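Known limitations

Structure tokens in this collection are predictions and should be treated as such. Users comparing against experimental data should check residue numbering before alignment. To illustrate the layout, the record for Tryptophan-rich protein TspO is reproduced below. The input appears on top and the generated tokens appear beneath it.
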Amino acid sequence: MAIDHPIFANRSSHPERLILWMAVCLGGGLAIGFLFQPDAWFQSLNRPWYAPPNWLFGPVWTALYLLMAYAMHRVEHDGFSHPVRIARRIFLTQLALNFLWTPVFFGAHLMWAAFGIITALLVAIGATILAFDRVDRTAALLMVPYGAWVTFAAFLNAGYAFLN
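Generated tokens:
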């Protein structure tokens, strides 16, 4: 079944790469989330007034990881040129920072160190968006909701750190 929408135009070849990126992004995110779930320590913290309910994080991150995977797939569709290789390296850097934040915050309970990581992550997301834009504008735009959510998450991180 073909999807007739411009966002999917000319991007149907190499579905195995899309599956790979979905496994890396969503699979990695699910694994990290499973290993470092909010525990009694987190439940005992003073919550910022703007903290959403905990149940919201799973669906939001699932959607964001899928958007990230599809964005990376779109970038790779243009081959493995120098701009694509740079975009992939920056993407993997931001993904590593993303995956690092959870064990530092929920595992080690180091809220200020986690804030440093999420700040670096925001810079890396911005760099990813710029690198993706050089290759595929739609891929860059697909990363914007992720950047917005991580910006909110940084404010949450800071709120928890200040209150506790």
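For this record: The two ends are 52 Å apart (CA to CA). Residues 1-10 have pLDDT under 50 and may be disordered. Please report discrepancies through the issue tracker.
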